[in-house]
Design goal:
6 helices
């Protein structure tokens, strides 16, 4: 327990600067954590939903033929499965970025492999590598700002 009545120290390993929650919002590392958390929540959900509507792009064109051959059904069905996974990944990042950011990084790694084995999309693979690095940065920041275990924390 801390010196003030009713105050509870943060869990071991979780960064909590001295002072009020306002002080936390002034911390550039915490600001980065929040921006990455929002970005890696919203983007996967939007991309996942679009797998069902193809408004942004016709996603099937990015699926390498060898991946299409090992998946059940066709590319259209595969993209629906991908959409569900991406929506789930976005929701998980919102709930528990400490762990889910690694899931997103691994997913992006799989997308990069797909794009590198399908000629003509190397620029998108490079962009996704940048996103993978961002997901790993979120995971590292979350190790300081998101408590371990299954406890959820949204705001300081």
């Amino acid at each position: 327990m801390s010196a003030s009545v009713g105050a509870v120290d943060p869990p071991a390993g979780v960064y909590a600067p001295a002072g009020s929650p306002k002080d936390l919002w002034r911390d550039p590392a915490y600001q980065s954590f929040v921006m990455l958390r929002i970005g890696f929540t919203v983007a996967p959900i939007l991309f996942g939903v679009d797998k069902f509507f193809n408004v942004m792009v016709h996603w099937e064109k990015y699926l390498a033929s060898w991946i299409n051959d090992i998946l059940p059904g066709n590319a259209f069905t595969a993209m629906h499965i991908v959409g569900v996974v991406e929506i789930a990944a976005g929701v998980l990042v919102a709930l528990k970025p400490r762990y889910a950011a690694y899931v997103v990084a691994a997913w992006l790694g799989g997308i990069i492999v797909d794009l590198l084995t399908y000629s003509g999309y190397y620029d998108i693979a490079l962009r996704d590598f940048g996103l993978l690095l961002g997901a790993l940065a979120l995971a590292r920041l979350a190790s300081k700002f998101d408590p371990p275990g299954l406890r959820l924390k949204f705001l300081p």
